[in-house]
Specification:
Layout: H1 6-11, E1 19-22, E2 26-30, E3 38-44, H2 59-75, E4 83-86, E5 102-106
Antiparallel strand pairs: 1-2, 2-3, 3-5, 4-5
The structure holds guanosine-5'-monophosphate (5GP) and zinc ion.
Residues 6, 17, 29-33, 41, 88, 94-97, 115 line the site of guanosine-5'-monophosphate (5GP).
Length: 115
C-alpha cells in the first residue's frame, strides 16, 4: 500500500468508495465524477503506478482484471448495449491518479467521450 494513494486507501477501506466488487487481486468502485450512467474503476489491489510499470509477472493479474470487467459489464447490464474499457497512461492520456486503473463506461452512446 502507498500511504498517500487515494486508490490504495479505497481498496484498504480507509477512504470512502462505492465498492461494487472486491477480491484478493482487484477492487472495482464507482467513479466519483461519472462520465456515463455506468462508470466504474477497476484497480489492482497492489499499488502499480501505471501500465508503464507492468511486467510479464502481471499477466495473470491483468487477465483477471479484464475478466472482472466483462462480468461487471454483464452485472450492470451494458454488455449488449456496449461499453468502453480504458486505461489512461501518462500526461497525454490525462492520467490523474497514479495507481493503475481501468475505466469501464457504458449505459449511453459514448462517441467522443474519451475518459
Ligand atoms: P484518470 O484520468 O487518471 O484515468 O482518471 C482518474 C479517475 O478517478 C477520474 O475519472 C476521477 O473522477 C476518479 N477519481 C479520482 N479520485 C477519486 C476518488 O477519491 N474516488 C473515486 N471514486 N474516484 C476518484
Ligand atoms: Zn495505490
Amino acid at each position: 500500500m502507498s500511504e498517500n494513494c487515494i486508490f490504495c486507501q479505497i481498496v484498504a477501506g480507509k477512504a470512502p468508495g462505492e465498492i461494487v466488487y472486491k477480491d484478493e487481486q482487484v477492487t472495482a468502485f464507482r467513479d466519483q465524477q461519472p462520465a456515463a450512467p455506468v462508470h466504474l474503476l477497476i484497480v489492482p489491489a497492489r499499488h502499480i503506478t501505471s501500465l508503464n510499470r507492468i511486467s510479464e509477472a502481471d499477466e495473470g493479474l491483468l487477465g483477471h482484471l479484464i475478466i472482472v470487467a466483462r462480468k461487471l459489464a454483464e452485472k450492470f447490464l451494458i454488455s449488449q448495449s456496449g461499453y468502453r474499457f480504458i486505461i489512461n497512461t501518462g500526461p497525454d492520456a490525462g492520467q490523474t491518479v497514479f495507481h493503475l486503473h481501468a475505466h469501464l463506461m457504458g449505459g449511453k452512446p459514448l462517441s467522443g467521450l474519451k475518459r
